[in-house]
Design a protein that fits this description.
9 helices; C8orf32 fold; about 40% helix; five-stranded antiparallel β-sheet
Length: about 375
Amino acid sequence: MKSFYKTRYTVLLISLIVIIIALLCIFAYKISKNEINIKDVVADLENEIIDKGTDINEKITNNANNINQVTNIVEPILGENIYLENNSNVIDNKHFFYNQLTSEEKDIYNALENNKEKLKKGNYEIDLPSSIGKIYEEQNGEAKLNQMYQNVMDAFNTDNIDIFYIDSTKIYLLTKITTKITTKTYDIKLSNGENLDNYYTDYFTTEEQVTNAINYVEEESNKIISNISGNNYDKIKQIHDWIVDNIEYDQTYSNIHNNNIYGALKDRKVVCEGYAKLMKYLLDKINIPNVLVSGIGTDNNGNTENHMWNYVMLNGNWYAVDCTWDDPIIIGNGRVSNSNRYKYFLKGSNDFMKDHKEIGNVSSSGMVFTYPELSKENY
């Protein structure tokens, strides 16, 4: 009997195992079928999403005609040029004023500098980063952008005295604002005014004229530099002497180029701005640190006038040089002898500031730039 029951229990156990395996197979099969169904459902959902996306795109396209476009024209507010300068013992001749701008202003400046060669065309449109347009969304945004543009042009014109053929008052900030649903995009350009053929100074009308003038300045300045030698003091003195000996003050203010390097080298007759810019241009060519300084000069009779001169670094210190007032023919409203031609050459603040006063504004409505700190004593 025991053998019978043992055999029976064995058969039952085997049968139970077989049934369990069969159930597991059936369960697995059903799961497999369910997975297929799930995949089908997912595919259907994907197709539906694509269809919905197409509908949305069609709606966006159909709404294109409802997009609002607004064009703002910011006119330059460049006031009367006064002049300029900066502050630091580490000098970057080509970016002295640039380094005092905000990061947003530098973006505008960089766009100008990157397209500097194309400015020769006189009507080339310069694209600005669209991010600049976000300023419009700030409180008083348009006024803020207008002021930024003023600051940039002041810095760019003073850092880049070789663009004597450009009239900054003829370059406008043009902004087109496009609204799509709730998003605004900004297309910002620098271009000549709507009723202007170009942004040249009044003397120039073609790119060929500009190119010829640039080549002339380069050739004449190279002739001067080729005769310069010695240490830095010698070189500064030789450039100072060449300017004093060869440039005449434009007492009638009749020379159309009397405030730039072209007038200084071509016509040899300029006002103080032309003297100072030529000094900077020649010093830049021989890599001697220097900056232009704007301010007020007071003559022997107590009369004051807007004035421009240079600060030059020599042996780690800054000194003032005023070629205009060292000119033996004209100084303010009087005359001086040749023996006084170095009265304003490499001077420290104790002497120089007796009749010179710094003013950091390049234009009457621009930012106030800073200048290097002069040595107190003369060189």
